[in-house]
């Protein structure tokens, strides 16, 4: 997998911490691999919306990658609840169902961005960088080879 | 069979398989499935409810399913491992999600259920109201089969139009 300039937190230059929420083990594994190539760290995982809320409280991640179609509680509702309790939460929806209505609803409920599956690493990387804004910094590493 | 309902599924499968498997795909045989559906290996079924109703099956024979799962996991995966099933489920999810996106933007409203494992060797026979189309996608990892059976839910569409009007 392609290497990227490490995305770090501006305040302490530590790896960005992620909460990965998807009912598919395969999708979580795939996103975890991408996060590693971005120089990030998985702080928690969840397979449904309810678990995502408790995991967020425990892990306090910098970024949440949230699927939409999940059992028990869907991703948009979970994102809304997380953002209601933690207005600073940065939730990025990652779903194969990317019709306009869904995207608009997710953004209205507090999600910061939307990435459609299948996820292209370069797209996700740019979206994360955008969502982190000034709180994130891209640092070239030896493995990355070049600063992107 | 209404090809305008089926085409988004063909396009989505083609795009998702090419992107995830990082290889060109070729659409092989496309035919009406007049007999009862006969499972080939690990098969995920996704049911669709709303203005359009039906189901989509993504089916890979054992060795192909293991090969695809191994490729995507970046490590060897045996045919009987859960990750094989998970991989097929996620591929089905992505294909159907992308097709649903296209159809939804065309004005059709419906929901998809999470994928389920199709364990019966023999499925239901298609009928006049809901014909099934089976197609084969040839990839570098082997052949993958998609069986789509779909029909308009006229009553639901009329109800929604009446409410809107």
Précis, in short:
The complex is a heterodimer of chains A (148) and B (165). Chain A has 148 residues and is α/β, with parallel strands linked by helices.
Listing every helix as H and every strand as E from the N terminus to the C terminus, the arrangement of chain A reads EEHEHEHEHEHE
Largest sheet of chain B: 7 strands, antiparallel
Determine the mean pLDDT of chain A: 93
Query: What is the string of helix and strand elements of chain B?
Result: HEEEHHEEEEH
The rounded distance between the terminal residues' Cα atoms of chain A is: 15 Å
Structural category of chain B is alpha+beta
Percentage of residues in DSSP E strands of chain A? 15-25%
* Envelope shape of chain B: globular
| CATH classification class of chain B | Alpha Beta
> Helices and strands of chain A: which structural class?
alpha/beta
Tell me which CATH architecture of chain A applies here. Answer: 3-Layer(aba) Sandwich
Q: What would the CATH topology of chain A be?
A: Rossmann fold
- What is the straight-line distance between the termini of chain B? 29 Å
Average predicted confidence as pLDDT of chain B: 86
Strands of chain B, count: 7
- Oligomeric state as shown: heterodimer
What key attributes describe this structure?
A: about 150 residues; Rossmann fold; five-stranded parallel sheet; two-stranded antiparallel sheet; B: about 160 residues; alpha+beta; Chemotaxis protein chec; seven-stranded antiparallel sheet; 7 strands
């Amino acid at each position: 997998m392609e290497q990227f300039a490490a995305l770090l937190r501006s305040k302490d230059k530590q790896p960005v911490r992620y909460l990965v929420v998807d009912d598919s083990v395969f999708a979580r594994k795939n996103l975890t691999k991408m996060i590693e190539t971005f120089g990030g760290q998985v702080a928690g995982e969840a397979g449904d919306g309810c678990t995502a809320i408790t995991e967020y409280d425990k892990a306090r991640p910098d970024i949440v990658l949230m699927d939409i179609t999940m059992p028990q509680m869907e991703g948009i509702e979970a994102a809304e609840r997380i953002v209601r309790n933690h207005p600073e939460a940065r939730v990025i929806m990652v779903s194969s169902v990317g019709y306009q209505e869904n995207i608009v609803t997710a953004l209205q409920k507090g999600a910061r961005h939307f990435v459609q599956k299948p996820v292209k690493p370069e797209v996700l990387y740019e979206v994360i960088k955008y969502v982190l804004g000034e709180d994130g910094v891209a640092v070239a590493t030896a493995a990355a080879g070049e600063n992107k | 069979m209404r090809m305008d309902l089926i085409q988004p599924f063909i396009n989505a499968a083609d795009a998702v398989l090419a992107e995830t498997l990082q290889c060109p795909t070729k659409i092989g045989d496309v035919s009406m499935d007049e007999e009862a559906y006969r499972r080939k290996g690990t098969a995920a079924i996704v049911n669709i409810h709303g203005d359009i109703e039906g189901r989509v099956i993504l089916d890979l024979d054992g060795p192909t399913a293991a090969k695809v799962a191994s490729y995507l996991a970046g490590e060897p995966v045996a045919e009987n491992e859960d990750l094989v099933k998970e991989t097929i489920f996620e591929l089905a999810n992505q294909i159907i999600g992308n097709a649903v996106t296209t159809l939804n933007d065309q004005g059709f409203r419906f929901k998809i259920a999470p994928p389920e494992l199709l364990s019966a060797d023999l499925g239901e026979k298609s009928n006049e109201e809901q014909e099934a189309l089976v197609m084969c996608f040839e990839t570098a990892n082997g052949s993958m089969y998609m069986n789509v059976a779909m029909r308009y839910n006229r009553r639901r569409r009329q109800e929604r139009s009446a409410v809107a009007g």
